[in-house]
Design a protein that fits this description.
The chain has 447 residues and is mainly alpha-helical. It contains 22 helices and 4 strands. The radius of gyration is 26 Å and the shape is globular. InterPro entries: ARM-like (IPR011989), ARM-type_fold (IPR016024), IFRD (IPR039777), Interferon-rel_develop_reg_C (IPR006921), Interferon-rel_develop_reg_N (IPR007701).
């Protein structure tokens, strides 16, 4: 067969569709210039072979930031439609990349109307990927489910998502044969979705029980000594503890008292874990529980306070040589604050700036809630704080501050300007450090 005919032959497996799209897809041109089939003409199977979306990871890497500068809202929604279709692709890698692409876009933009129209499609895709996928695909699906609920906020739509996905998430969390990382992400997702959408109090209690059954396994008592299990599963127990603590913040007082009586004495055992993240999670959870307990009873008394403060002080001044310097520095910083919270009922206020606004984090409850949603949304947290009504209600920020396009443009720093600023700051630090070293050398020579 002549070369020119082979080059123009239809792509193997390509179904019927638009002739223009087929020729573009098979001509060897750049993927990004190819337009997908219309919703009316293309089935899911046909979309699987459309080269315009054959690399969804490229959108995940570029993200909506590029679209902000070079495109429009319509461009973003157009690409998202293609990615949503690819979440049902035959290839597991394509599905995973599509899930991550949709998640990155929804993390960086508030697209309430777009998501509302497609919530059933998205929920079906997530459900299928959680059930039939493995490992990384399940992680990507669970992460998208969290962001989906953040976009929709509390209400009927999120409740339906939780009713559909909740049992599947619980099954994966409790499945000992599933990937540890997938179970970890599902535990975080389950906690976030319940925090947003749980309307039935019995569902909330069931979620708390599921999560506490996990993290309490991290502590095994042998006689009078606490022996902490040091295994890869600790990351799952850490995420379960943090999700459980988040749900405690919305519990009725009667249930909160029961949980404190049942688990307050267990958490100090987790401070002896070999995993630094577990130690930090346990310390911050203890500080939050003390805050909640003292909020219910101002004269709250903890029986083993002296032993607890000794453990916290030891962690705040930890100098073990077998631990990494970065871990020790992070641990000491956190446990100094935890110790102050337990002993002096004090919290070091933090300030979060986003756009023209500021938010003051002045309690452990607020800090834990902020940290959880920051983990879910990543770098999009600041944008959501400005525009997402649900998050603004959670943090009591009031109505959205409306800014004109000119003001927004002046506030935004381009990627190149950011690079220049960081380079200049790095050079300044290097210069100051060199001068300091020179002074030390001069003093050494003098003596």
């Amino acid at each position: 067969m002549p070369k020119n005919k082979r080059r123009n032959a239809p792509h193997r497996g390509g179904g019927g569709g638009s002739g223009a799209a087929t020729s573009a897809a098979t001509a060897g041109g750049p993927h990004r210039t190819v337009h997908p089939f219309s919703d009316e003409d293309a089935s899911i199977e046909t979309m699987s072979h459309c080269s315009g979306y054959s690399d969804p990871s490229s959108f995940a890497e570029d993200g909506p930031e590029v679209l902000d500068e070079e495109g429009t809202q319509e461009d973003l929604e157009y690409k998202l439609k293609g990615l949503i279709d690819l979440t049902l692709d035959k290839s597991a890698k394509t599905r995973q990349a599509a899930l991550e692409g949709v998640k990155n876009a929804l993390s960086s933009k508030v697209l309430y109307e777009f998501v509302l129209e497609r919530r059933m499609t998205l929920t079906d895709s997530i459900e299928r990927c959680l059930k039939k996928g493995k490992g990384d695909e399940q992680r990507a699906a669970a992460a998208l489910a969290s962001v989906l609920c953040v976009q929709l906020g509390p209400g009927f739509e999120s409740e339906e998502i939780l009713k559909t996905l909740g049992p599947i998430l619980k099954k994966i969390i409790c499945d000992g044969t599933a990937s540890i990382r997938a179970r970890q992400t599902c535990a975080t997702c389950f906690g976030v979705c319940c925090f947003i959408a749980s309307d039935d109090i019995t569902e909330l209690y069931s979620a708390l029980e599921c999560l506490e059954n996990l993290f309490t396994k991290s502590c095994v008592k042998e006689k009078d000594t606490s022996v902490i299990c040091s295994t890869p599963i600790t990351v799952l127990h850490t995420s379960s503890l943090l999700a459980w603590t988040l749900l405690l913040t919305i519990c009725p007082i009667s249930e909160l008292k029961k949980k404190l009586e049942l688990h307050f004495h267990k958490l100090p055992n987790l401070l002896s874990s070999d995993d630094v993240n577990m130690r930090i999670a346990a310390g911050e959870s203890l500080a939050l529980l003390f805050e909640l307990a003292r909020g219910m009873e101002s004269d709250f008394f903890y029986e083993d306070m002296e032993s607890l403060t000794q453990m916290l002080r030891a962690l705040a001044t930890d100098g073990n040589k077998h631990r990494a310097k970065v871990d020790k520095r992070k641990q000491r910083s956190v446990f100094r604050d935890v110790l102050r919270a337990v002993e002096e009922r004090d919290f070091p206020t933090e300030t979060v700036k986003f756009g023209p606004e500021r938010m003051y984090i002045d309690s452990w409850v607020k800090k834990h809630t902020y940290d959880t949603f920051k983990e879910v949304l990543g770098s999009g947290m600041q944008y959501h704080l400005q525009t997402n009504e649900f998050l603004r209600n959670v943090f009591e920020l009031g109505p959205t501050v409306m800014l004109d396009a000119a003001t927004l443009k002046t506030m935004k720093i381009s990627r190149f300007e950011r690079h220049l600023y960081n380079s200049a700051a790095f050079k300044a630090r290097t210069k100051a450090r060199s001068k300091c070293r020179d002074k030390r050398a001069d003093v050494g020579e003098f003596f």
